[in-house]
Design a protein that fits this description.
With 141 residues, the protein is an alpha+beta fold. It has one domain: Gcn5-related N-acetyltransferase (GNAT) (Aminopeptidase), CATH 3.40.630. It is built from four helices and five strands. A five-stranded mixed β-sheet has the order 1-2-3-4-5, sandwiched between helices. A hairpin with a 2-residue loop joins strand 2 and strand 3. It starts with a strand and ends in a 16-residue tail after the last helix.
Length: 141
Amino acid sequence: MIIREFRPADLSGVAALLEQLGYEPGEREIQARLAHLAKASDHWVRVADVDGRVVGLLHVYERPALEKAREAVVQSLVVDAAQRSRGVGATLMREAERWARERGLPAVALYTRIDRDAARAFYERLGYGLVATSHLMRREL
């Protein structure tokens, strides 16, 4: 397994991974989003590649805040269902933590849906602990 930068040829693999989580923005929208992220020095996107096939995706970014210290936030972590429990997710999380340490960030945070018990158990095995539960509120503009 190789952890590497996203390449345009990875687009369909990334779209397939996001679909496994229930997100279907379409390849054109994903491409636009990735292009935007590529310009932001405080965002980092990597894929896990096994034999030329994208089997994992990581998006982490640096979040500054007024009420607490800066931290890294794992925005997206997804591993192909057929590759789970093989160390791909743990490897990607170690990469996120390495990226955070290199930036001098004191912590890595992430959000997972309350109904994703397997994901929460995975993060707990890696040493992450529940800090809070919250309600996401949103208004379309």
